[in-house]
Amino acid sequence: MKEKVENILDEIKSFKAQTQDELEQYRMKFISKKSVIGELFGEMKNIPNEEKKAFGMQINTLKEAAQSKFKALIAGLEQSKDSAADNDHEDLTLPSAGNSLGAVHPLTYVRNEIIRIFERIGFNVSDGPEIEDDWHNFTALNFPENHPAREMQDTFFIEKNPDMLLRTHTSNVQTRLMNSGKPPFRSIMPGRVYRNEAISARAHCVFHQVEGIYVDKEVSFVDLKQTLYHFAKEMFGKDTEVRYRPSYFPFTEPSAEIDISCQICKGDGCQLCKYTGWVEIAGSGMVDPNVLSNCNIDPEEYTGFAFGMGIERIAQLKFRVNDLRLYTENDVRFLKQFRTLH
User: Is 170:190 a contact under the CB 8 Å cutoff?
Assistant: First the structure.
């Protein structure tokens, strides 16, 4: 048996593989479950007990030698491929290929368009951290302690510091802005947000929002309606119809959701609008007095409105992309469709 093991070891050491087929032959003979080494393991039961330990050590040594040689053969084949590629020079007399220009990502295009619309009516752009504390993300915005959004299944909390989390909305920038000084504030907050959701065609754990806030003396719900009415017309066209529906958010009172006439069926009814003719694009409302007080702003002197919308939702309506996963997969076939965007 010892002589058999030595013969296999000599065969392993002398084996050469110049092609993938030869490499596969080596693997089948020395590495696979049905290899000659595997057969030796099967003979272990026929070895006398006093010899099993020594025999087992021989087989393990043989197995390690086979695996080391297999790795060396793989490395040798890869090196041969690289050398062949280096020697395969291109014909320098051929005309050069034209440069392929990239395209603006559809989410970047929509984000920039939203910013341009609001900048033209006096809003500036504010930014804030994506890793946020509980106070700026929830407490200051009037979220009660038992609100579902605070649960682990809805929010990504930082394991080593339960008070820190990945922001669930860009409203955290609003609270930081209001804490930074005295009104008036008129700003929008585009950015990336995170929610603990299963990834599917209609939901993702990472997406993008644009939120806005206007705080000053005598700001009214009329100001909110006209601002978002103007945005909808500028983004989707002058024929777009807009409606406001009562809703509820912890940080605004009263609150409303904004719908526009479906851009695909033009209000006739389709799968996207669930045959209602309307599609929701944003949530909004007057800033709750508690939020103003939390941010050291006197609600008796100042009022304000806030709104928020998903960039993916706006892009879906403009480009009719129904699978949110396409925006983050970087599939060149998808992105090439947007070469005409500027």
Answer: yes
Helix, strand, or coil (residue 82) = helix
Task: Indicate yes or no: pTM above 0.85.
Answer: no
pLDDT in tens, 213-252: 999 999 999 999 999 999 999 999 998 999 999 999 999 9
Band of pLDDT at residue 16, cut at 50, 70 and 90: confident
DSSP one-letter code for 134 = H
Q: Yes or no: say if 291 and 141 are a contact pair by the CB < 8 Å rule.
A: yes
Q: How far apart are CA 138 and CA 251, in angstroms?
A: 9
326: pLDDT strictly greater than 80 = yes
Contact indicator for 175, 182 with CB cutoff of 8 Å: no
Phi, psi torsion values for 11, nearest 5 degrees:
-65, -40
Which pLDDT value is given to residue 274? Answer: 84
Crossing angle between the packed helical segments 106-119 and 311-319, to the nearest 10 degrees: 110
Contact between residue 236 and residue 314 where contact means Cβ atoms under 8 Å apart = no
Measured CA to CA, the distance from residue 283 to residue 84 in angstroms comes to: 60
CA distance linking residue 160 with residue 235, whole number of Å = 43
The DSSP annotation for 19-81 comes to SHHHHHHHIIIIISTTSHHHHHHHGGGGS-HHHHHHHHHHHHHHHHHHHHHHHHHHHHHHHHH
| CA 173 – CA 190 distance, rounded (Å) | 9
- Residue 17 CB contacts under 8 Å (≥ 6 apart), including other chains: 23, 25, 26, 73, 76, 77
For residue 203, is pLDDT > 70? yes
Q: 275-299 burial, b if ≥16 CB within 10 A, otherwise e? A: eebbbebbbbbbbbbebbebbebee
Contact assessment for residue 190 and residue 208, using Cβ atoms and an 8 Å cutoff: yes
pLDDT tops 90 at residue 54: no
**C-beta of residue 303 within 8 angstroms of C-beta of residue 287:** yes
Band the pLDDT of 118: cuts 50, 70, 90.
very high
Q: What are the start-end ranges of the E strands in 129-173?
A: 131-133, 157-158, 161-166
